[in-house]
Amino acid sequence: MASQIETALYTVATPIGNLADITLRALEVLKSVDIIACEDTRITSRLCEKYEIKTRLISYHKFSENKRIELFLGYLNEGKSIALVSDAGTPLISDPGEILVKNVIEAGFRVIPICGASAVITLLQSVQRMGESFKFIGFMPRTAGQIEEIFLKNKTENLVFYESPNRIEETLKILAQLRPKAILSYGRELTKKFEEIKTAPVTDILENLTQKGEFVCMVCAQQHEDIENQIIEKASTLRSLRLCDKDIINVLCAFFDFPKNKVKEILYKL
User: Of 73, 90, 117, which residue sits at a domain end?
Assistant: First the structure.
């Protein structure tokens, strides 16, 4: 019988590949709660079998989120405890759970995080980047226009995103067209036998891309000097079209997502 623990929702991080990457605390919680809510019971059962976890599994995925809320709140009201896990990694990080957490908090119960593996952090702890900051956007959108907008508006960010193996090539082609000199780091099959972590210009990566396994990528931040050089080049082209400075500034600000006062300074130096 499971040991008695606090009635709460525990968001438990599980391995992203190697099943040894799980914390002792996570194992204790998964064995002690009354229910484990998981995306795919078949995947979570592998982890449970390895570590002799006998807790009941109930599916909870993006197609059943709303239907399961009342069920899980009912268990909490009965004094039972629930662990929420995703198929791999940390719940709520591009995985289901946001709706459940919101409702659990509103109902007056605690949400207790049990930290552990994350593909984003695994990549970031193994590659060089400019500065400590980064921007994580989850999975890329579906349309080329939306992807282009994200790449253009985040040139000065270390931009981190997930991408599926069947979409990675097309996404990187868009990046290469917009920023052919962009440096990209990616992790594939992280923590598994054929783990691959690579950093190179995006054009080089496209030449040798293996489309297997989920990807976590980081586009390195573009230095301000590089952007300023591009602004100067575009401004010269726009002036040749006899646009007024006000219109040129508006166009450049919209295209480069750069502060207006900085664009003015660059323009007035020409």
Answer: 117
101 located within any domain? yes
Nearest to 190 by CA among 4, 43, 21: 21
**CA proximity to 202, closest of 223, 227, 226, 174:** 174
Residues 101 and 132 in one domain: no
Judged on CB neighbours under 10 Å (0-12, 13-18, 19+), 198 is middle
Q: Which helix (H) or strand (E) holds 84?
A: strand 82-85
CA–CA dist 41, 253 (Å, integer): 49
Same domain, 213 and 231: no
Last residue of a domain, one of 96, 117, 138: 117
Q: Are 123 and 21 in contact, with CB atoms under 8 Å apart?
A: no
Q: Where are any strands of DSSP class E within 148-231?
A: 159-163, 183-188, 196-201, 215-219
pLDDT tens-place string over residues 46-94: 999 999 999 999 999 877 778 889 999 999 999 999 999 999 999 999 8
Stated pTM of the model: 0.79
> How many Cα atoms within 13 Å fall on the side-chain side of residue 100?
35
Residue type, 120: V
Helices 245-256 and 224-240: crossing angle in degrees, nearest 10, is 140
CA distances from 202 to 17, 172, 182, 186, 240 (A): 26, 7, 6, 10, 32
